Predict the structure of Carboxypeptidase-like regulatory domain-containing protein.
Amino acid sequence: MLNNNPKYYNLFFLLFITCLTYAQNTANGKITDAKTSKEISSVDIFINDSTEPFLKTSGGSFSVQSDSIIYKLKFSKKNYSPETVTITPETADNIFVKLSQEKENTIAEIVIHNEKTKYKNKKENPAYAIMQEVWKRKRNNGLEKFDTYTYKEYEKIQFDANNLDSAFMSKKIFNKLDFIFDYADSTASGKIGLPIFLNESIYENFGENKPGKKIKRLLVAQKTSGFQDNQVITITAKNLYRDINIYDNTLNYFDIGFPSPVGTNGFSTYDYNLTDTISIHSENAYKIRYQPKRKDVLAFQGYLYIDTDSYAVLGATLKSTQKINVNFINSISTELEYDNPDENTFLPKKFITEIELTPFAKKRTSKSIIAKRSVDYSQYEFNKPLDDKVFTRREEEYDAKFVDKDDAYWVQARPDSLSKSEQGVYEMLDKLQQTPKFNRIVKIYETLASGYYNAFKGIDIGPIFSIYGKNEVEGDRIRLGARTYFGQNDPWRAQFYTAYGFKDQQVKYGAEARYMFNRVNRFMIGAGTKRDIEQLGVQLTTDDGIMARTFASSTLFARGENASLSSINKTNIFASIEPWKNFQVRVDGTLQSIKSANPEKFSLMYYRDGDLRKTLNDSHVTLSLIARPGAKFSQTGVDRYEHGTLAPTIILKYTRGIEGLFNGDFNYNRLQFMFYKPVLIGSWGKTLISFEAGKTFDNVPLGLQNVIPGNQSYSLAQNTFAQLNYYEFVADTYSTLHLEHHFNGKILSFIPLIKKLKLREIAFIRSAYGTLSDASKAINVDGFKYSAPSEQIYFEYGFGIENIGIGNLRIFRVDFNWRGNYLDRPGISTFGIKAGFQVGF
């Protein structure tokens, strides 16, 4: 089963783009004596922050080529002052380096540890004593100590395609698009580096710590190369990055935990060496080199710069190892710079992160894109009175025109001017937007990412992945649908579908319309109706949405027969509002009739006032409170794109069934609660926690009962029990707990040969407990068949292997599931295998 969570659409885009590009970093030039202008040989060249020379020149010319990003070259020769050159795509070719001879009295002895020094124990290591002082003085973000604060944030994100050549440029795909190479830069190897995307954003940040905690991050300007109206690429870029704090024990990259070299448990992962004492911004600093003890773990290598007096972190470099086990990622590089206003706090100053992305392999010649993000923090002000209106959401914040600024504004707003290649990106992408072929390529991506094909202006056909299905009642099933779509910030949307089953020869349909009145509080109303065949009982905390369809109704491959399908006629109206950010209040009114779609094999018949009924009529009102603290969204329309975060989902629902309203058969009250949260457990991976509990306070028939969700398909399905049959457990009162831990290869990396496969292990356990009253059983004709897991807590457990694939393309997962108890029941499966696609880092 394909994971179709919208937050992974950015990965589809990256795969789509990077299939067209190569990455490799080169630089070349000459080295001469500054006084005599004669060429110099036997010069050691260091790449980036390496302490080992990459090359010793044999003549006056040099050429270096690396499989990682080159952003700095250092040139060193005895009796000469070392020289450092910053490398950019514009300056990598024909570098002219002049070395000056040192005067004898200025030469100081500097010991560079090219190999890590071995100590009998860590207490003998001088770096350990320094890091102990850092831990004792562990600093907090200085923003927390002031009553109020404001600061400005400038963010720049750029994508560069690297290692292009003439053969690549002549490919058929670039017919009528070859003008883009006018904006490319030549490198020493004859290859081409092409900037393909640039986004700039200006934010104003406001915070209040006393008397109450308030935070506001206001986007005041944004400029995107050619995609100002289509934010899909901008979202892709921004979703790659997370904010990090070097003092935390765990650093979050792609929602994967990396141990911090400044964390209090750093010595369990890293070796540290004190290499030098240098000056940074007029401050003396210890330069400490760190590297992981094991190269095949998720960890970094680089340098820490620690103030010699205050033991504050002035800066840090973090570079991933060559064996980084993250999908679609070849390397990560981060530079951090901090201000330290006092001995207890720090303030972010500048962060730069470069990510090399490839779709398939981690080879030097792999196709890749370099995604670079730089953030500058400035204009800090503290304890300045802030009006409460600053923290109030305003309509203009959600207007796309609110971020329109002219070129003069950007010249003033940027900390540094754009390079020539960066300036060219805007012009190039604007031209591409006018090219029909380019627009067709973008349309293909949008179709694959959204599942909808734009057939006419404002009309999309889809979802294309739901066209075909199969179940026991309908046999082969064809489904066609459409929706209105004028843009990602549409305030209204209408959509419908129709389906036909070739076995039951019945037409099904569904239609829904929604309209949003206010972008600030997202006040929205909607209505819809449908008639369809569904598998009930595969989800506990359901919604009343019309367009949703359960996976089990169209399962192509399953264990055993699935006859327990229902025929549903449903009409729904709803209203929702967000009185506070990321907190939604929703009220639904629903009318539905439910009957068995396969009466010969599955009965939903029940007794009401002594009469035997086969169709259940239900009228109910549902109040839902939905909290998503910390979630981030990109659009402001009726549908929103959610960024990948570790934000929890908390839902509290109350449902009231009303007898007699539109022929409703039952009065009932139901209360439900759901909590879901991904949690990083340091370098040991990530745990997914899902807890649900609920109670129906009145006796209702099977069609309205709480069914512990089973999964008879061979596909992966979140929050279901792999070894339960449909309707095996039914409960008036229930609670379920799902714990799933992803180790990110932590254990398998210890096993020779196996570790080369870069597989990742998963462990999980699922449990359910509930009760079902005799009165609820007696309502149903087949009530004797149903029971709850009340004798003991039902549980199942198992392990999985994920990250199965080739190179960087590792999107397959297999789970092995065992049933823990209730083994004496007929027709059960004690062991099962589930498999599916899982797109993620």
Notes: Confidence is low (pLDDT under 50) at residues 1-24, 104-114, 186-190.
